[in-house]
Amino acid sequence: MSKKAIYPGTFDPFTNGHLDVLERALNIFEHVDVVLAENSQKQTLFSVEERFDMVREVVRDLPNVSVDVLREGLLADYARQAGASAIVRGVRQVKDFEYEFQMSLLNRHLYPEVTTVFLMPNVKYTYVASTIIREVSMLGGDVSKFVHPYVLDQLSRKRAERRAH
């Protein structure tokens, strides 16, 4: 069995909490693919290309990490094609676990060889969610402790674009 995992998410934007979960996954797996989901049900601040660029910049110095985009299809099929033995999911609170548990059971049904691994971030990131980071940043709040400097620059750029319109 492969020691490769995939870490899927919308990552709008990629936060230090996401990075913490990724680093924890790298302590378990030989290789982790960060897979950006192009989710039509979510209205994102950043395009999938912008999110890909941000994640790639944040993880560029991490060994054994690659970044990809799942534009269509099932995550279980992507995991199978990538040769992944695990799907990594970050869980901050019970509310997260309920949804992730359902998804893990469905993915196991679709691809029985894959295991979902739930990882909790450092306690200092348990309240950090991309949605909150976006909202606070767009309102001019300081989110510098919660995102990589490159992501902070991209959030500032988006805020300036919105003000210009």
Question: Quick summary of this structure?
Answer:
With 165 residues, the protein is an alpha/beta fold.
Q: How would you portray this structure in words?
A:
The chain has 165 residues and is of the alpha/beta class. It has one domain (4-126): Rossmann fold (3-Layer(aba) Sandwich). The protein has six helices and five strands, in the order E-H-E-H-E-H-E-H-E-H-H. It has helices at residues 16-26, 48-59, 75-82, 94-110, 130-138, 149-164, and strands at residues 4-9, 31-37, 65-70, 86-90, 115-119. A five-stranded parallel β-sheet has the order 3-2-1-4-5, sandwiched between helices. The longest helix is centred in the middle third of the chain and has 17 residues, at 94-110. It is globular and about 50 Å long. The relative contact order is 0.20. Its main location: cytoplasm. Its cofactor is Mg(2+). Pfam families: CTP_transf_like. It comes from Chlorobaculum tepidum (strain ATCC 49652 / DSM 12025 / NBRC 103806 / TLS) (Chlorobium tepidum). Keywords: ATP-binding, Coenzyme A biosynthesis, Cytoplasm, Magnesium, Nucleotide-binding, Nucleotidyltransferase, Transferase.
State the end-to-end CA separation.
52 Å
DSSP summary: helix tally: 6
Mean pLDDT: 91
Can you tell me the CATH class? Alpha Beta
Classification by helices and strands? alpha/beta
Shape: globular
Please give the oligomerization state of what you see.
single chain
Low-confidence stretches: none
Function: Reversibly transfers an adenylyl group from ATP to 4'-phosphopantetheine, yielding dephospho-CoA (dPCoA) and pyrophosphate.
Pathway: Cofactor biosynthesis; coenzyme A biosynthesis; CoA from (R)-pantothenate: step 4/5
Enzyme class: transferase
Subcellular location: Cytoplasm
